[in-house]
């Protein structure tokens, strides 16, 4: 198993290095090594711990659900988070509420 990234176009695992680029033999997509380094954004929780997909976090502040009278209470445990790009960088499902997006600054890693 190699440490090379999968192809961003077709998700093939058979990429190889060609000078300053990565190349996918299945779809012929080429991308630079610098682009891969820039894409790796590190998302941290309120305490500075690095978050990853699949982590379990706890909400540290009461959060109002926009467009509803529901509130996500302090201490609510959220399992199996998924990190996404954007202002709200955590995508998750909360029991009793459903699918939500959260900001990493309002959670801490368990």
From TrEMBL:
Protein known as: Protein YjdM
NCBIfam families to which the protein is assigned, alphabetical: phnA
Top-level taxon of the source organism: Bacteria
Protein YjdM C-terminal domain segment(s): 43-110
Species annotation: Paraglaciecola hydrolytica
Record-linked PANTHER family: PROTEIN YJDM (PTHR30305:SF3), PROTEIN YJDM-RELATED (PTHR30305)
Family indicated by similarity: Belongs to the YjdM family.
Gene3D superfamilies: 2.20.25.10, SH3 Domains
């Amino acid at each position: 198993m190699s440490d090379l990234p999968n192809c961003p176009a077709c998700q093939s695992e058979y990429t190889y290095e060609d000078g300053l680029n990565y190349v996918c033999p299945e779809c012929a997509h080429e991308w630079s090594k610098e682009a891969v380094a820039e894409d790796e954004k590190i998302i941290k929780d309120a305490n500075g711990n690095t978050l990853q997909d699949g982590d379990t976090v706890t909400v540290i502040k009461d959060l109002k659900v926009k467009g509803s009278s529901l509130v996500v209470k302090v201490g609510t445990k959220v399992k199996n988070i998924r990190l996404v790009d954007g202002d709200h960088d955590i995508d998750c499902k909360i029991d009793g509420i459903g699918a939500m997006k959260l900001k990493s600054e309002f959670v801490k890693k368990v």
